[in-house]
Amino acid sequence: MFKHSVKKKKKKKTPTEKEKLGVVVKPIEKPRVVLKFIWMQKVIGIALNQVIPGHGTIPLSPYYFWPKEDAWEQLRLLLEGKAWISRNQLHALLNQATDIIELWHDTYSN
Predict the structure, then answer these.
(1) Is pLDDT of 12 > 80?
(2) pTM of this prediction?
(3) Which family does it belong to (predicted)?
(4) Which of 20, 24, 47, 86 is geometrically suited to a Cys-Cys bond with 63, CB 3.0 to 4.6 A?
(5) How far apart (Å, rounded) are the C-alpha atoms in residues 66 and 43?
């Protein structure tokens, strides 16, 4: 006795109306807050910007230069003054700033 297989026809997916028209709808990206750095031999500059997808970048602070200024502390005070920035986001940004400052310090302290 033998088994013979029957191939099932794959049902063709009919394109949606948007696919027919070639319309691509991207999800709306939320604005985000990012750190910007200026990496130099004697100082490192840190600034805070807001990125609005599709529109550009808005500076939220001047550059704070470490070690001339306590850039981390100035950044912390700035972030705490922005009620719309969550505590989690505040901590994440300060941790990123700490990591970059430490990397810069390790690079130029030798």
Answers:
(1) no
(2) 0.70
(3) Belongs to the chloroplast-specific ribosomal protein cS23 family.
(4) 47
(5) 6
In the DSSP assignment, the letter for residue 61 is S
Residue type, 107: T
Name the burial class of residue 71, with classes exposed (0-12), middle (13-18) and buried (19+) by CB atoms within 10 angstroms of its CB: buried
- Does residue 58 contact residue 82 with C-beta atoms inside 8 Å? no
Residue spans of the domains in the chain: they are: 30-108
How much is the pLDDT for 8?
58
- The CATH fold assigned to 30-108 is Enolase-like; domain 1 (3.30.390)
State both tokens at 85.
Answer: 């920035």
Q: What percent of the chain has pLDDT over 90?
A: 65
CA 73/CA 84 separation, integer angstroms? 19
**pLDDT tens by residue, 56-96:** 999 999 999 999 989 999 999 999 999 999 999 999 999 99
